[in-house]
Design a protein that fits this description.
Blueprint lengths: L1 H15 L4 H45 L7 H11 L11 E9 L3 E13 L10 E14 L1 E9 L7 H17 L8 E8 L7 H7 L78 E4 L2 H10 L8 H10 L25 E9 L6 E4 L16 E5 L14 H14 L3 E7 L6 H9 L6 E4 L4 H16 E2 L1
Parallel strand pairs: 4-5, 4-7, 7-10, 10-11
Antiparallel strand pairs: 1-2, 2-3, 3-12, 5-6, 8-9
Helix pairs in contact: 2-3, 4-6, 4-10, 7-8
Protein backbone atom coordinates (compact mmCIF):
# COMPACT_ATOMS: atom_id res chain seq x y z
CA UNK A 1 0.00 0.00 0.00
CA UNK A 2 2.91 2.42 0.74
CA UNK A 3 4.06 2.79 -2.85
CA UNK A 4 0.55 3.55 -3.96
CA UNK A 5 0.09 6.00 -1.16
CA UNK A 6 3.23 7.91 -2.26
CA UNK A 7 2.08 7.99 -5.88
CA UNK A 8 -0.98 10.12 -5.32
CA UNK A 9 0.85 13.02 -3.62
CA UNK A 10 3.57 12.93 -6.27
CA UNK A 11 0.94 13.13 -9.01
CA UNK A 12 -0.64 16.10 -7.31
CA UNK A 13 2.70 17.86 -7.04
CA UNK A 14 3.40 17.17 -10.71
CA UNK A 15 0.15 18.76 -11.69
CA UNK A 16 0.98 21.87 -9.65
CA UNK A 17 4.58 22.16 -10.87
CA UNK A 18 4.75 24.67 -13.89
CA UNK A 19 8.52 24.94 -14.14
CA UNK A 20 9.69 24.49 -17.81
CA UNK A 21 6.27 25.14 -19.42
CA UNK A 22 7.39 28.29 -21.27
CA UNK A 23 10.31 26.49 -22.83
CA UNK A 24 8.09 23.67 -23.93
CA UNK A 25 5.48 26.01 -25.42
CA UNK A 26 8.15 28.06 -27.15
CA UNK A 27 9.60 24.93 -28.67
CA UNK A 28 6.20 23.84 -29.82
CA UNK A 29 5.51 27.26 -31.42
CA UNK A 30 8.97 27.84 -32.90
CA UNK A 31 8.33 26.04 -36.17
CA UNK A 32 5.20 27.94 -37.23
CA UNK A 33 6.79 31.20 -36.09
CA UNK A 34 9.83 30.51 -38.22
CA UNK A 35 7.65 29.55 -41.17
CA UNK A 36 5.52 32.66 -40.76
CA UNK A 37 8.49 35.01 -40.42
CA UNK A 38 10.83 33.49 -42.96
CA UNK A 39 8.11 32.25 -45.30
CA UNK A 40 7.26 35.88 -46.01
CA UNK A 41 10.64 36.08 -47.74
CA UNK A 42 9.49 33.37 -50.13
CA UNK A 43 6.22 35.24 -50.69
CA UNK A 44 8.08 38.48 -51.46
CA UNK A 45 10.25 36.63 -53.96
CA UNK A 46 7.13 35.24 -55.59
CA UNK A 47 5.55 38.71 -55.80
CA UNK A 48 8.70 40.27 -57.22
CA UNK A 49 9.07 37.50 -59.77
CA UNK A 50 5.44 37.83 -60.83
CA UNK A 51 5.84 41.59 -61.36
CA UNK A 52 8.96 41.09 -63.42
CA UNK A 53 7.28 38.38 -65.47
CA UNK A 54 4.29 40.65 -66.13
CA UNK A 55 6.55 43.44 -67.36
CA UNK A 56 8.26 41.04 -69.75
CA UNK A 57 4.94 39.84 -71.13
CA UNK A 58 3.50 43.33 -71.53
CA UNK A 59 6.57 44.48 -73.42
CA UNK A 60 6.45 41.50 -75.76
CA UNK A 61 2.70 41.64 -76.46
CA UNK A 62 2.70 45.38 -77.13
CA UNK A 63 5.62 45.02 -79.53
CA UNK A 64 4.11 42.10 -81.41
CA UNK A 65 0.60 43.60 -81.54
CA UNK A 66 1.80 46.83 -83.17
CA UNK A 67 0.24 47.11 -86.61
CA UNK A 68 3.51 48.49 -87.91
CA UNK A 69 5.15 45.17 -86.99
CA UNK A 70 5.61 43.12 -90.16
CA UNK A 71 7.71 40.21 -88.85
CA UNK A 72 6.59 36.80 -87.64
CA UNK A 73 4.70 37.50 -84.41
CA UNK A 74 6.08 34.56 -82.45
CA UNK A 75 9.61 35.54 -83.45
CA UNK A 76 8.93 39.07 -82.24
CA UNK A 77 7.72 37.73 -78.91
CA UNK A 78 10.79 35.51 -78.56
CA UNK A 79 13.07 38.46 -79.28
CA UNK A 80 11.45 40.68 -76.65
CA UNK A 81 11.28 37.93 -74.05
CA UNK A 82 14.98 37.12 -74.54
CA UNK A 83 15.94 40.78 -74.40
CA UNK A 84 14.17 41.25 -71.06
CA UNK A 85 15.12 37.91 -69.46
CA UNK A 86 16.73 38.54 -66.04
CA UNK A 87 19.72 36.63 -64.70
CA UNK A 88 19.14 33.89 -62.18
CA UNK A 89 18.43 30.19 -62.07
CA UNK A 90 14.71 30.74 -61.55
CA UNK A 91 14.36 32.11 -65.07
CA UNK A 92 15.72 28.87 -66.48
CA UNK A 93 12.27 27.48 -65.74
CA UNK A 94 10.48 30.13 -67.85
CA UNK A 95 7.76 28.71 -70.05
CA UNK A 96 5.41 30.77 -72.24
CA UNK A 97 2.84 30.34 -74.98
CA UNK A 98 1.92 32.88 -77.65
CA UNK A 99 -1.62 32.86 -78.97
CA UNK A 100 -2.48 35.14 -81.93
CA UNK A 101 -6.21 35.83 -81.55
CA UNK A 102 -6.60 38.19 -84.51
CA UNK A 103 -4.28 39.42 -87.24
CA UNK A 104 -5.68 41.50 -90.09
CA UNK A 105 -4.62 44.63 -91.93
CA UNK A 106 -6.49 46.85 -89.48
CA UNK A 107 -6.61 44.80 -86.27
CA UNK A 108 -4.32 42.59 -84.24
CA UNK A 109 -4.86 40.86 -80.90
CA UNK A 110 -2.22 38.82 -79.10
CA UNK A 111 -2.16 36.86 -75.84
CA UNK A 112 0.86 35.48 -73.98
CA UNK A 113 0.69 33.22 -70.93
CA UNK A 114 3.85 32.40 -69.00
CA UNK A 115 5.09 30.76 -65.83
CA UNK A 116 8.26 30.26 -63.80
CA UNK A 117 8.92 27.89 -60.89
CA UNK A 118 10.57 29.13 -57.69
CA UNK A 119 12.16 27.06 -54.94
CA UNK A 120 10.78 28.01 -51.51
CA UNK A 121 13.38 27.07 -48.86
CA UNK A 122 11.39 28.43 -45.90
CA UNK A 123 8.00 27.17 -46.95
CA UNK A 124 9.61 23.77 -47.54
CA UNK A 125 9.60 23.42 -43.73
CA UNK A 126 5.89 22.76 -44.05
CA UNK A 127 6.18 20.70 -47.22
CA UNK A 128 5.91 23.42 -49.90
CA UNK A 129 9.13 22.98 -51.86
CA UNK A 130 8.30 25.02 -54.96
CA UNK A 131 5.72 27.56 -56.15
CA UNK A 132 4.70 28.31 -59.74
CA UNK A 133 4.26 31.97 -60.63
CA UNK A 134 2.00 32.73 -63.60
CA UNK A 135 1.17 35.81 -65.66
CA UNK A 136 -0.89 36.68 -68.72
CA UNK A 137 -0.82 39.65 -71.05
CA UNK A 138 -3.22 40.60 -73.85
CA UNK A 139 -2.53 43.42 -76.29
CA UNK A 140 -4.91 44.74 -78.93
CA UNK A 141 -4.30 47.30 -81.62
CA UNK A 142 -7.01 48.22 -84.08
CA UNK A 143 -6.77 50.86 -86.76
CA UNK A 144 -9.99 52.76 -87.29
CA UNK A 145 -11.21 54.22 -90.52
CA UNK A 146 -10.86 57.96 -90.54
CA UNK A 147 -12.67 60.81 -92.30
CA UNK A 148 -11.02 64.24 -92.29
CA UNK A 149 -12.34 67.65 -93.33
CA UNK A 150 -9.60 70.20 -93.97
CA UNK A 151 -11.30 73.62 -93.92
CA UNK A 152 -8.65 76.09 -95.12
CA UNK A 153 -8.73 79.88 -95.34
CA UNK A 154 -7.75 81.19 -98.78
CA UNK A 155 -9.01 84.75 -98.24
CA UNK A 156 -7.23 87.72 -99.78
CA UNK A 157 -5.27 88.30 -96.56
CA UNK A 158 -3.56 84.94 -97.12
CA UNK A 159 -1.49 86.41 -99.95
CA UNK A 160 2.30 86.19 -100.20
CA UNK A 161 4.17 83.89 -97.80
CA UNK A 162 0.97 82.90 -95.99
CA UNK A 163 -0.53 80.97 -98.90
CA UNK A 164 2.87 79.46 -99.68
CA UNK A 165 3.18 78.27 -96.07
CA UNK A 166 -0.36 76.87 -96.18
CA UNK A 167 0.36 74.92 -99.34
CA UNK A 168 3.50 73.40 -97.86
CA UNK A 169 1.98 72.54 -94.49
CA UNK A 170 -1.28 71.12 -95.83
CA UNK A 171 0.49 68.97 -98.43
CA UNK A 172 2.75 67.57 -95.72
CA UNK A 173 -0.33 66.78 -93.64
CA UNK A 174 -1.95 64.94 -96.56
CA UNK A 175 1.22 62.88 -97.02
CA UNK A 176 1.23 61.93 -93.33
CA UNK A 177 -2.42 60.93 -93.35
CA UNK A 178 -2.22 58.88 -96.55
CA UNK A 179 1.09 57.17 -95.87
CA UNK A 180 1.45 53.45 -96.52
CA UNK A 181 -1.57 51.31 -95.73
CA UNK A 182 -3.28 54.29 -94.06
CA UNK A 183 -4.49 55.23 -97.54
CA UNK A 184 -6.95 52.34 -97.43
CA UNK A 185 -8.60 53.68 -94.27
CA UNK A 186 -8.47 57.45 -94.73
CA UNK A 187 -10.62 59.86 -96.72
CA UNK A 188 -9.99 63.59 -96.89
CA UNK A 189 -12.33 66.45 -97.71
CA UNK A 190 -10.35 69.46 -98.89
CA UNK A 191 -12.53 72.55 -98.40
CA UNK A 192 -10.86 75.87 -99.22
CA UNK A 193 -12.99 78.88 -98.32
CA UNK A 194 -12.78 82.52 -99.22
CA UNK A 195 -16.01 84.49 -99.34
CA UNK A 196 -17.76 81.14 -99.67
CA UNK A 197 -16.98 77.58 -100.85
CA UNK A 198 -16.85 76.41 -104.45
CA UNK A 199 -18.46 72.97 -104.18
CA UNK A 200 -17.44 71.84 -107.68
CA UNK A 201 -19.36 71.31 -110.87
CA UNK A 202 -20.91 67.93 -110.01
CA UNK A 203 -22.39 68.92 -106.66
CA UNK A 204 -23.35 72.34 -108.01
CA UNK A 205 -25.33 70.66 -110.80
CA UNK A 206 -27.15 68.64 -108.15
CA UNK A 207 -27.99 71.47 -105.74
CA UNK A 208 -28.37 74.63 -107.85
CA UNK A 209 -31.66 75.68 -109.40
CA UNK A 210 -31.77 74.76 -113.08
CA UNK A 211 -30.58 77.25 -115.67
CA UNK A 212 -33.12 79.20 -117.73
CA UNK A 213 -32.81 76.82 -120.64
CA UNK A 214 -33.89 73.96 -118.37
CA UNK A 215 -36.84 75.62 -116.66
CA UNK A 216 -39.18 78.36 -117.86
CA UNK A 217 -39.60 79.89 -114.39
CA UNK A 218 -35.90 80.60 -113.83
CA UNK A 219 -34.73 84.06 -114.87
CA UNK A 220 -30.93 84.51 -115.14
CA UNK A 221 -31.28 88.28 -114.87
CA UNK A 222 -32.21 90.52 -111.96
CA UNK A 223 -35.90 89.65 -112.05
CA UNK A 224 -35.85 87.09 -109.23
CA UNK A 225 -32.88 88.49 -107.34
CA UNK A 226 -33.93 89.61 -103.86
CA UNK A 227 -32.50 92.08 -101.37
CA UNK A 228 -30.58 91.57 -98.11
CA UNK A 229 -31.49 88.47 -96.10
CA UNK A 230 -33.94 87.41 -98.81
CA UNK A 231 -31.22 86.67 -101.33
CA UNK A 232 -30.58 83.00 -100.38
CA UNK A 233 -34.32 82.24 -100.41
CA UNK A 234 -35.13 83.34 -103.95
CA UNK A 235 -34.76 81.62 -107.32
CA UNK A 236 -32.11 82.77 -109.77
CA UNK A 237 -29.31 81.38 -111.87
CA UNK A 238 -26.67 83.17 -113.94
CA UNK A 239 -25.33 82.23 -117.33
CA UNK A 240 -21.77 82.66 -116.12
CA UNK A 241 -19.93 82.42 -112.85
CA UNK A 242 -18.27 79.94 -110.52
CA UNK A 243 -19.98 76.97 -108.91
CA UNK A 244 -21.07 78.32 -105.52
CA UNK A 245 -24.62 78.15 -104.18
CA UNK A 246 -26.44 80.27 -101.62
CA UNK A 247 -27.29 78.81 -98.21
CA UNK A 248 -30.42 79.34 -96.19
CA UNK A 249 -30.52 79.40 -92.42
CA UNK A 250 -31.89 75.86 -92.52
CA UNK A 251 -28.80 74.60 -94.33
CA UNK A 252 -26.58 75.12 -91.30
CA UNK A 253 -27.20 71.62 -90.02
CA UNK A 254 -25.94 68.12 -90.76
CA UNK A 255 -28.66 67.28 -93.28
CA UNK A 256 -28.50 67.10 -97.04
CA UNK A 257 -29.59 70.04 -99.20
CA UNK A 258 -32.56 69.35 -101.50
CA UNK A 259 -31.70 68.90 -105.17
CA UNK A 260 -32.22 71.85 -107.49
CA UNK A 261 -33.13 74.16 -104.63
CA UNK A 262 -30.38 76.75 -104.19
CA UNK A 263 -29.64 79.88 -106.22
CA UNK A 264 -26.18 80.62 -107.53
CA UNK A 265 -23.77 83.06 -105.91
CA UNK A 266 -23.06 85.86 -108.43
CA UNK A 267 -19.52 86.59 -109.49
CA UNK A 268 -18.14 89.68 -107.75
CA UNK A 269 -15.41 90.99 -105.49
CA UNK A 270 -16.07 93.20 -102.51
CA UNK A 271 -12.70 94.75 -101.77
CA UNK A 272 -11.47 95.23 -105.32
CA UNK A 273 -8.51 92.85 -104.90
CA UNK A 274 -9.37 90.91 -108.05
CA UNK A 275 -10.06 87.77 -106.08
CA UNK A 276 -13.51 86.29 -106.74
CA UNK A 277 -15.88 86.04 -103.77
CA UNK A 278 -16.75 82.53 -104.95
CA UNK A 279 -13.42 80.71 -105.36
CA UNK A 280 -12.46 79.85 -108.93
CA UNK A 281 -12.61 76.40 -110.48
CA UNK A 282 -8.97 75.69 -109.60
CA UNK A 283 -9.94 76.03 -105.95
CA UNK A 284 -13.02 73.77 -105.87
CA UNK A 285 -13.54 71.54 -102.87
CA UNK A 286 -12.56 67.88 -103.11
CA UNK A 287 -14.70 65.42 -101.20
CA UNK A 288 -14.08 61.92 -99.90
CA UNK A 289 -10.67 61.39 -101.50
CA UNK A 290 -7.69 59.22 -100.66
CA UNK A 291 -5.72 60.28 -103.76
CA UNK A 292 -2.74 62.17 -102.36
CA UNK A 293 -1.69 63.36 -105.82
CA UNK A 294 -5.11 64.90 -106.53
CA UNK A 295 -5.19 66.63 -103.17
CA UNK A 296 -1.65 67.93 -103.54
CA UNK A 297 -2.38 69.24 -107.04
CA UNK A 298 -5.48 71.07 -105.86
CA UNK A 299 -3.57 72.58 -102.93
CA UNK A 300 -0.84 73.79 -105.29
CA UNK A 301 -3.44 75.32 -107.61
CA UNK A 302 -5.42 77.17 -104.92
CA UNK A 303 -5.98 80.84 -105.73
CA UNK A 304 -7.13 83.50 -103.30
CA UNK A 305 -10.76 84.45 -102.78
CA UNK A 306 -12.31 87.66 -101.45
CA UNK A 307 -13.89 87.55 -97.98
CA UNK A 308 -13.65 85.11 -95.07
CA UNK A 309 -16.74 82.91 -95.04
CA UNK A 310 -15.55 80.66 -92.25
CA UNK A 311 -19.16 79.86 -91.37
CA UNK A 312 -19.73 78.36 -94.82
CA UNK A 313 -16.39 76.56 -94.68
CA UNK A 314 -17.36 75.01 -91.34
CA UNK A 315 -20.78 74.09 -92.72
CA UNK A 316 -19.31 72.11 -95.60
CA UNK A 317 -16.64 70.64 -93.38
CA UNK A 318 -19.40 69.29 -91.14
CA UNK A 319 -21.73 68.16 -93.92
CA UNK A 320 -18.87 66.31 -95.61
CA UNK A 321 -18.65 64.17 -92.45
CA UNK A 322 -22.41 63.65 -92.13
CA UNK A 323 -24.02 60.30 -93.02
CA UNK A 324 -26.93 62.29 -94.45
CA UNK A 325 -24.74 62.95 -97.49
CA UNK A 326 -23.60 59.37 -97.97
CA UNK A 327 -23.41 58.69 -101.68
CA UNK A 328 -23.87 62.36 -102.62
CA UNK A 329 -20.25 63.50 -102.35
CA UNK A 330 -18.68 61.08 -104.81
CA UNK A 331 -15.01 60.39 -104.23
CA UNK A 332 -13.17 57.19 -103.53
CA UNK A 333 -15.38 55.58 -100.84
CA UNK A 334 -18.96 54.68 -101.71
CA UNK A 335 -19.82 53.84 -98.10
CA UNK A 336 -18.82 57.21 -96.64
CA UNK A 337 -19.51 59.34 -94.69
CA UNK A 338 -20.08 56.64 -92.08
CA UNK A 339 -22.63 56.93 -89.30
CA UNK A 340 -21.59 59.15 -86.43
CA UNK A 341 -21.90 56.24 -83.97
CA UNK A 342 -19.85 53.83 -86.10
CA UNK A 343 -17.30 52.36 -83.67
CA UNK A 344 -14.87 51.68 -86.53
CA UNK A 345 -14.74 55.25 -87.82
CA UNK A 346 -13.19 58.41 -86.42
CA UNK A 347 -14.18 61.82 -87.80
CA UNK A 348 -11.85 64.82 -87.75
CA UNK A 349 -12.34 68.47 -88.69
CA UNK A 350 -9.48 70.96 -89.03
CA UNK A 351 -10.43 74.62 -89.37
CA UNK A 352 -7.67 77.09 -90.16
CA UNK A 353 -7.98 80.87 -90.60
CA UNK A 354 -5.81 83.96 -90.50
CA UNK A 355 -8.49 86.46 -89.53
CA UNK A 356 -11.99 87.52 -88.63
CA UNK A 357 -15.13 86.03 -90.10
CA UNK A 358 -16.82 88.45 -92.53
CA UNK A 359 -20.44 89.20 -93.44
CA UNK A 360 -21.87 87.80 -96.65
CA UNK A 361 -21.95 90.70 -99.09
CA UNK A 362 -23.74 90.60 -102.45
CA UNK A 363 -23.97 93.06 -105.32
CA UNK A 364 -27.22 94.98 -105.18
CA UNK A 365 -27.96 94.48 -108.86
CA UNK A 366 -26.00 91.65 -110.52
CA UNK A 367 -26.36 90.94 -114.22
CA UNK A 368 -25.64 87.98 -116.40
CA UNK A 369 -23.08 89.84 -118.51
CA UNK A 370 -20.89 91.64 -115.98
CA UNK A 371 -18.68 90.85 -113.02
CA UNK A 372 -19.25 93.82 -110.71
CA UNK A 373 -16.51 94.98 -108.34
CA UNK A 374 -17.13 96.83 -105.11
CA UNK A 375 -14.56 99.51 -105.72
CA UNK A 376 -15.51 99.89 -109.39
CA UNK A 377 -18.88 101.45 -108.63
CA UNK A 378 -21.10 98.43 -107.93
CA UNK A 379 -23.36 98.86 -104.90
CA UNK A 380 -23.04 96.12 -102.27
CA UNK A 381 -25.57 94.90 -99.77
CA UNK A 382 -25.29 92.63 -96.74
CA UNK A 383 -27.11 89.30 -96.92
CA UNK A 384 -25.69 87.89 -93.65
CA UNK A 385 -24.19 90.03 -90.90
CA UNK A 386 -20.89 89.20 -89.25
CA UNK A 387 -22.37 88.87 -85.77
CA UNK A 388 -20.73 89.02 -82.35
CA UNK A 389 -18.84 86.26 -80.57
CA UNK A 390 -21.49 86.32 -77.82
CA UNK A 391 -24.37 85.67 -80.23
CA UNK A 392 -26.43 82.54 -79.72
CA UNK A 393 -25.78 79.81 -82.32
CA UNK A 394 -29.49 79.74 -83.19
CA UNK A 395 -29.49 83.36 -84.40
CA UNK A 396 -30.49 83.56 -88.09
CA UNK A 397 -28.67 85.57 -90.76
CA UNK A 398 -25.57 85.72 -88.55
CA UNK A 399 -22.17 84.40 -89.71
CA UNK A 400 -20.74 84.03 -86.21
CA UNK A 401 -23.83 82.20 -85.00
CA UNK A 402 -23.73 79.89 -88.02
CA UNK A 403 -20.10 79.07 -87.34
CA UNK A 404 -20.76 78.31 -83.67
CA UNK A 405 -23.78 76.22 -84.63
CA UNK A 406 -21.72 74.00 -86.91
CA UNK A 407 -18.99 73.63 -84.28
CA UNK A 408 -21.59 72.54 -81.72
CA UNK A 409 -23.14 70.03 -84.11
CA UNK A 410 -19.79 68.46 -84.92
CA UNK A 411 -18.69 68.12 -81.31
CA UNK A 412 -22.12 66.85 -80.23
CA UNK A 413 -21.79 64.07 -82.81
CA UNK A 414 -18.30 62.99 -81.78
CA UNK A 415 -16.26 64.81 -84.42
CA UNK A 416 -12.82 65.73 -83.08
CA UNK A 417 -12.29 69.38 -84.01
CA UNK A 418 -8.87 71.03 -84.32
CA UNK A 419 -8.51 74.74 -85.03
CA UNK A 420 -5.55 76.83 -86.14
CA UNK A 421 -5.21 80.58 -85.80
CA UNK A 422 -2.49 81.57 -88.25
CA UNK A 423 -0.80 84.84 -87.37
CA UNK A 424 -4.01 86.22 -85.89
CA UNK A 425 -4.17 88.75 -83.07
CA UNK A 426 -4.44 86.92 -79.76
CA UNK A 427 -7.56 87.69 -77.78
CA UNK A 428 -9.60 89.04 -80.70
CA UNK A 429 -12.83 87.58 -82.05
CA UNK A 430 -11.11 85.14 -84.41
CA UNK A 431 -9.22 83.47 -81.57
CA UNK A 432 -12.31 83.39 -79.37
CA UNK A 433 -14.26 81.57 -82.07
CA UNK A 434 -11.45 79.12 -82.78
CA UNK A 435 -11.12 78.32 -79.09
CA UNK A 436 -14.89 77.87 -78.90
CA UNK A 437 -14.85 75.45 -81.80
CA UNK A 438 -11.92 73.22 -80.77
CA UNK A 439 -12.87 69.97 -79.03
CA UNK A 440 -10.40 70.67 -76.21
CA UNK A 441 -8.17 73.63 -75.35
CA UNK A 442 -5.15 71.65 -76.54
CA UNK A 443 -6.81 71.20 -79.95
CA UNK A 444 -6.46 74.92 -80.65
CA UNK A 445 -3.15 75.98 -82.22
CA UNK A 446 -2.04 79.60 -82.25
CA UNK A 447 0.70 80.00 -84.85
CA UNK A 448 2.40 83.33 -84.18
CA UNK A 449 5.31 82.98 -86.56
CA UNK A 450 5.75 81.45 -89.97
CA UNK A 451 5.93 77.79 -88.96
CA UNK A 452 2.49 76.54 -89.96
CA UNK A 453 4.03 73.11 -90.48
CA UNK A 454 4.40 72.64 -86.73
CA UNK A 455 0.65 72.99 -86.18
CA UNK A 456 -0.29 70.55 -88.94
CA UNK A 457 2.41 68.09 -87.84
CA UNK A 458 1.13 68.26 -84.28
CA UNK A 459 -2.40 67.54 -85.47
CA UNK A 460 -1.20 64.66 -87.63
CA UNK A 461 0.62 63.12 -84.65
CA UNK A 462 -2.45 63.57 -82.46
CA UNK A 463 -4.75 61.93 -85.01
CA UNK A 464 -2.44 58.97 -85.51
CA UNK A 465 -2.27 58.39 -81.75
CA UNK A 466 -6.08 58.51 -81.56
CA UNK A 467 -6.63 56.12 -84.45
CA UNK A 468 -4.65 53.29 -82.80
CA UNK A 469 -6.33 51.71 -79.79
CA UNK A 470 -5.03 49.03 -77.46
Amino acid sequence: MAPFANFVPRLARFRRDDSGNVAILTALCALPLIVAACGSVDVLRMTSTQERLQIMLDSATLAAAALSQSGDLEDVVDTYMDANLPDGAVWDTLSYTTNVLDDTESSRELEITASVTLKTPFLSLIGINTQTVRAKSVAVQSQTDIEISMVLDISSSMSGTKIADLRSASKSFVDHMLDGDLVNHTSINLIPFGGTVNIGADLFAELAVPAASDSSNIDPTDANYAQGTGIPYTVYRFTHGNTCVEYTDNDFDLLDIPSGSRPQVPNFTKYGQKNDWCPRSDTEAIFNSNKASDLRDRIDAMTLSDGTGMDIGAMWGAKALSPSLKGDLGGDFTDRPADFDDDDTMKIAIIMTDGEITPQYRPASPTSSEQPHGKDGAVMQTAVVEGRVTDDPATPHNATAYFKRMCDLMKDNGVVVYTIGYRIISGRNAETLLQYCASTPSNYYLVDGFDLDSAFNGIAASINSLRISG
